[in-house]
Design a protein that fits this description.
single chain; alpha+beta; Alpha-Beta Plaits; 93 residues
């Protein structure tokens, strides 16, 4: 079994009002990772992604592009110890 990891990302650019959260949840389902995503008051999107390292890295790569209408200017990434607390991928309000 592959190593489990947890990534905490902050995505900035044109990432709100372009279905970024919805498409992130869909991509997470396809890729097979757990976690959550939410909009922040400052216009960024925050997400926590947990799962097998290669899947989390694939999800991070997706976040660097985002959905079709988004424009990602920057992605800040930090690694955290996996918690196993998330069993699916949700949109947090």
């Amino acid at each position: 079994m592959e190593e489990r990891v947890r990534a905490h990302v902050f995505v900035s650019g044109r990432v709100q009002g372009v279905a970024f959260r919805l498409e992130t949840r869909r991509a997470a389902g396809r890729i097979g990772v757990c976690g959550w995503v939410r909009n922040l008051p400052d216009g960024r999107v925050e997400a926590v992604i947990e799962g097998e390292r290669r899947r989390v890295e694939e999800m991070i790569a997706w976040c660097r592009r985002g959905p079709a209408l988004a424009r990602v200017d920057a992605l800040d990434l930090s690694w955290e110890p996996p918690t196993g607390e998330d069993t699916d991928f949700t949109i947090v309000r």
